[in-house]
Amino acid sequence: MGASAVADVADVAERFREQYGAEPEGVWAAPGRVNLIGEHTDYNDGFVMPFALPHTTIAAVSRRTDGVLRLHSADVEGGAVELTLDSLAPESDRHWTAYPAGVVWALREVGHTAITGADVHLASTVPTGAGLSSSAALEVVVALALNDLYELGLRGWQLARLCQRAENVYVGAPTGIMDQTASACCEAGHALFLDTRDLSQRQIPFDLAAEGMRLLVVDTRVKHAHSDGEYGKRRAGCEKGAALLGVDALRDVPYDGLDAALARLGDEEEVRRLVRHIVTENERVERVVSLLQAGDTRAIGPVLVEGHASLRDDFRISCPELDLVVDTALGAGAVGARMTGGGFGGSAIVLIEAADEETVTKAVEEAFATAGFTAPRVFAAVPAAGARRLM
Ligand code: ADP
Ligand code: MG
């Protein structure tokens, strides 16, 4: 992972030449993402609202005709890993190569057997494991490259679906559709309002700079070990809630029917909390959409704070580091703040007036030092472009 947000295209192409001894046929980029609002709603058929980061994973790629896939990442020690397409099988690979190999597998599995191999060299500026979706950036950039080179004619949302399948089935990580769709479909200066039930999407203007505002991403640098199991538990709890309420997904519980739904859940306290978060979170996404469309960016601040409280108290996936970011930032004058991503670590987002950037950043860094936490990584995020061809 490089220091700057944007990896150097020429450098990636040069490394490809060094690795494989020929020019790449093309170079593509796919970004990481931050979710503005709509957390854990994506496996409940609900709403999410991510935007793309300027941080991207870049891939230089060429086709092969001999059924071989060669993968190399500048961010991983060692030489290229060579796989044969016929040997690709779900959950057969516990390394990073499972993400790009899974994409090739998923494409071929739905019938794109015209894919006869590839040489891939990757380099990324997306922090890994920070909840900013380096995994989706990696999948999407490979999918887009193969889509272009093999002229598969797939749209962004279709590539996103195949990438999700790669991660769920091939890698074996149960994730929703948000990350891949964000990486594939976001547009600069916008957040993506995505309905995860039918995958319909709308680009919502989110031009912070024009309003004298900034959005800070604070990577806490922690990932608490139990996070995968806890994700599974939340997911199962939401499914139980939907079953008890007789709906396909919690998305179908209307906001104005929440009290009645909670009453029906009786003494299922754990499930009640999960249901309350999902139903109120969907409503918060809709509120943020309305506010941004009305040009009232500052007014989304309190909605973000409500979202954090719901994740902390009802969904219970925050952690001391994330809470400290939010509390400290708000105390230092931030307009809004919340944890973002799966929880138990990863990153928080902080909405501020541009003039407050230094004050708020310092306050958070000092609070972490005082608490004895690892120093956080803080950067300002500009809503950037989704996956694209660079060369
Ligand atoms: P996140 O998506 O939040 O960054 P994940 O655990 O879902 O975290 O995905 C991170 C994993 O994706 C890494 O451990 C690695 O296996 C793989 N990965 C991401 N980016 C790269 C890269 N540039 N090179 C090699 N592997 C990568
Ligand atoms: Mg991921």
What can be said about this structure in brief?
This protein is 40% helix and 22% strand. It is an alpha+beta fold and 391 residues long. The protein has two domains: 9-204 and 385-389, 2-Layer Sandwich (Ribosomal Protein S5, domain 2); 206-380, Alpha-Beta Plaits.
List keywords for this structure.
2 domains, 391 residues, alpha+beta, Ribosomal Protein S5, domain 2, magnesium, cytoplasm, galactokinase activity, single chain, binds magnesium ion, galactose metabolism, carbohydrate metabolism, binds adenosine-5'-diphosphate
What would the principal axes of the Cα set say about the shape? globular
The tally of strands reads 13
Mean pLDDT: 96
Neighbour order of strands in the largest sheet:
5-4-6-3-1-13
**Relative helix content:** 25-40%
Number of helices: 11
**Taking Cα atoms only, what radius of gyration do you get, to the nearest Å?**
21 Å
Q: What is the N-to-C order of secondary-structure elements (H for helix, E for strand)?
A: HEEEEEHEHHHEEEHHHHHEEHEE
Domain GHMP kinase C-terminal: 290-368
Pathway: Carbohydrate metabolism; galactose metabolism
Protein name: Galactokinase
Subcellular location: Cytoplasm
